[in-house]
Write a structure and sequence with these properties.
Blueprint lengths: L1 E8 L3 H12 L4 E4 L8 H4 L11 H4 L5 H6 L9 H14 L6 E2 L3 E8 L4 E7 L8 E9 L21 E4 L14 E5 L3 H10 L5 E6 L6 E2 L7 H20 L18 H13 L4 H4 L9 H18 L3 H6 L14 E2 L2 H4 L5 E5 L5 E4 L3 E4 L3 E3 L2 E4 L8 H4 L2 E3 L6 H4 L18 E2 L13 H22 L3 E4 L1 H17 L33 H13 L5 E4 L12 E2 L2
Parallel strand pairs: 1-2, 1-6, 2-3, 4-17, 6-18, 7-16, 8-9, 8-16, 9-12, 10-11
Antiparallel strand pairs: 4-5, 5-6, 13-14, 14-15, 19-20, 20-21
Helix pairs in contact: 1-15, 15-17
Bound molecules: ligand NA7.
Length: 556
């Protein structure tokens, strides 16, 4: 049986930075990754059109000046192949690969109270004892969107053509020219893939249940001169990201929505619509997120934009969401998405009117008719945020199952620790600062906090850390209360734990999964906890390993 001081689960953006920090501190650690290589999201999602919605240079790691100096982002919103090359480059540059085991899935992780150890069973082809690993600290960097979910449709296995979830897009090129292709789903993924393949396939039929609000990405190349300027400004760029709620360069408009004239609002929106990235969402008035009237006025502005871009008025109306306002679900950014529907080879099927009844050998059957396809693409989303945790049999102190603890509602301390699950850390967990912000910025924050905790424990002779029940309740109440202000609480989306394909999550009963307080507030809070000697965390030592200086502390 192998023992490690730390086992990191997942070799995505978070896992890579986590192992780098541990190596630098000389803490013995390994990374276990279910995929065949590193990269997480960017290893798996190889569908055409997969790319950042974050400005590339705000997505990259900030920890190494040398890395910042040498990497040239070629596009403002870089695509999957380059993103994967980047992560691979990071791993090679810092010698991280030797610390990683691929094709190795964690089946279970049980905390052994007597030994103060985590006992893992992995699935990597080994048998017997080889499948058992132990570690002192378990760091779950399993990703928030890493468990794809398929519809539960009759006959899915009978389809004779090619079919796949976008997450499992084949590694080898998929021949699409001249093919009849179906895409099911119009979330951020569907919108990217539809826009990209519309002019490359024979016929494209989009099966849309609910449209999403989306706005132009306005991507473009980054020249040598622009990249040189970005390099000069990196400190300033990261400082801006650190002080904005979303962790982006986009700062909200601080003027009151109702304090400016309608013409002033329109002038702002016209400008934002043509700007790159999430500005349309995050540089907007903050009332968009909280005030029905403000949200309705802005939603109507975007609806009008859609009407202007889609030639067939009936199709345009179908592409305008009616059940939620702009920005209360994750806003997909698009490149000529709406124009795709002006093409004669692109067809929109509204499956809220004519639902898909089954998959047939040759295609899809709706309540209205049969459609024949060569390829069916499922862009149907993820068991988001908690899915990766639910897939591992995680048992904490006293055999408590995490899946049971989180069955009806989830609770964490700072999104990084869980009461009853000692020495288990989640640098980018549910309710942490990552999910609702520029992901890597949140990841660096989370990884640094977790790593600092380990360093602190080592310096003080502690070997066991567990969030108190009271601290966890305080944090979870805080996360929950913040939803009360947000219009997003009413929307059925992965931000609120809705997924029509996962039993128990299909009703859209709100689960409080993301922290809505913004990056600066989150960072201030977790830093304050650390500054007070990890207030809210019980720190202890194994028998015989008394902490140097202070006694085990329990500060609720
Ligand atoms: P999303 O945003 O969850 O979107 C999934 C889409 O698939 C959405 O339009 C769903 O419609 C549709 N869907 C899901 N299940 C079905 C079934 N059974 N039948 C028909 N349509 C279905 O996932 P994405 O992958 O697009 O985006 C996830 C995140 O990944 C994204 O926000 C980025 O941050 C990266 P519904 O809305 O449920 O009616």
């Amino acid at each position: 049986m192998q023992h490690h001081e730390v086992i990191v689960v997942g070799a995505g953006v978070a896992g890579l930075y986590q192992i780098k920090r541990l190596i630098d501190l000389g803490i013995e650690a390994t990374v276990i990754e279910a995929g065949g290589d590193l990269g997480g999201t960017w290893h798996w999602n190889r569908y055409p059109g997969a790319r950042f919605d974050s400005e590339s240079y705000t997505y990259g790691y900030s920890f190494s000046r040398e890395l910042l100096e040498e990497w040239h982002w070629k596009e403002r919103f870089s695509g999957q192949p380059e993103n994967l090359r980047y992560l691979s480059h990071v791993a090679d540059k810092f010698g991280l690969r030797p610390y990683m085991q691929f094709n190795c899935r964690v089946d279970s992780a049980h905390y052994d109270e007597a030994q103060n150890l985590w006992r893992l069973r992995v699935d990597d082809g080994r048998t017997g004892d080889g499948r058992a690993l132990t570690c002192r600290f378990l760091i779950l960097a399993t990703g928030l969107l890493s468990i794809p979910t398929l519809p539960r449709l009759k006959g899915m296995e009978s389809f004779k053509g090619q079919s796949f979830h976008t997450f499992h897009w084949p590694h080898e090129p998929v021949e699409m020219a001249g093919k009849r292709v179906a895409v099911i789903g119009t979330g951020a993924t569907g919108i990217q893939v539809i826009s990209e393949i519309a002019d490359k396939v024979g016929e494209l039929t989009v099966f849309q249940r609910r449209p999403n609000w989306s706005a132009p990405l306005n991507n473009g190349p980054i020249s040598d001169a622009e990249m040189a300027d970005i390099r000069r400004r990196y400190d300033e760029i990261f400082a801006t990201c650190a002080r904005t709620p979303g962790g982006f360069e986009h700062e909200p408009d601080r003027r009151g929505f109702f304090e400016v004239t309608r013409d002033e609002r329109l002038a702002l929106w016209d400008r934002l619509y043509d700007e790159p990235g999430f500005g349309i969402w995050l540089r907007n008035f903050k009332e968009i997120f909280t005030d029905e009237k403000a949200n309705a006025e802005f939603s109507e502005y975007i609806a009008e934009r859609i009407r202007r871009r889609v030639k067939d008025p009936k199709v345009a109306e179908k592409l305008i969401p009616r059940d939620h306002g702009f920005g209360v679900q994750r806003v997909p950014l698009e490149t000529r998405y709406f124009e795709a529907y002006n093409r004669p080879n692109v067809h929109l099927v509204d499956i809220s009117e004519t639902p898909i009844v089954s998959v047939t050998e040759t295609g899809l059957r709706t309540s209205e008719r049969d459609y024949d396809f060569d390829i069916i693409v499922y862009a149907t989303g993820f068991d988001a945020i908690t899915g990766a945790f639910d897939r591992i049999d995680i048992q904490g102190a006293g055999g408590e199952k995490l899946a049971d603890k989180w069955r009806t509602t989830i609770s964490t301390f700072l999104g990084m620790m869980i009461h009853g699950f000692p020495n288990m850390l989640m640098p980018a967990g549910p309710q942490s600062g990552s999910a609702s912000t520029n992901y890597p910025r949140g990841i660096e924050t989370g990884v640094n906090w977790c790593t600092d905790l380990l360093e602190y424990m080592s310096a003080h002779g502690y070997t066991r850390a567990e969030a108190t029940e009271a601290a966890e309740k305080r944090w979870t109440d805080h996360v929950t209360n913040m939803y009360a202000m947000m219009l997003m609480r009413k929307a059925k989306s992965w931000f609120t734990g809705y997924n029509s394909n996962v039993a128990g999550h299909e009703q859209g009963t709100v689960r409080y999964l993301v922290y809505n307080g913004g990056a600066p507030k989150y960072v201030n809070t977790i830093n304050a906890v650390a500054a007070k000697g990890y207030e809210g965390v019980v720190l202890g030592a194994d028998r015989g390993a008394a902490p140097s200086g202070s006694q085990p502390t329990a500060v609720a």
